[in-house]
Design brief:
Length: about 100
């Protein structure tokens, strides 16, 4: 009996929550496309892009550094292969 309750709590409940949240997101996208197509008679292909932008913004907002120490220690990423400013020479003159 205890194994069944643990299975319900740790396996079935999270799967139900994940399924419902993904289902709600798909329904909202479908309703948005239906409303736009019904009003304008045009398929708006940018609808998914706006949905993705919203998802990225929501994900970024929830994972942003929370404490001031985390914010102070945050280092923005640099371009791949880019040298730090201190390692670049001040002049690029060739000696003759």
């Amino acid at each position: 009996m205890n194994d069944a309750l643990e299975w319900l709590q740790f396996v079935l409940a999270p799967q139900m929550i994940n399924g419902l949240s993904i289902g709600v997101a798909v329904v909202l996208m479908a309703l948005g496309l239906t409303i736009i197509f019904g009003l304008l008679d045009v398929i708006n292909m940018a609808h998914g892009e706006f949905y993705a932008i919203g998802a990225y913004l929501a994900g970024g907002k929830t994972t942003w550094p929370i404490t001031q120490a985390d914010a102070d220690a945050f280092q923005p990423p640099t371009a791949v292969g880019a040298a730090p400013a201190a390692a670049t020479p001040a002049t690029t003159e060739a000696s003759s």
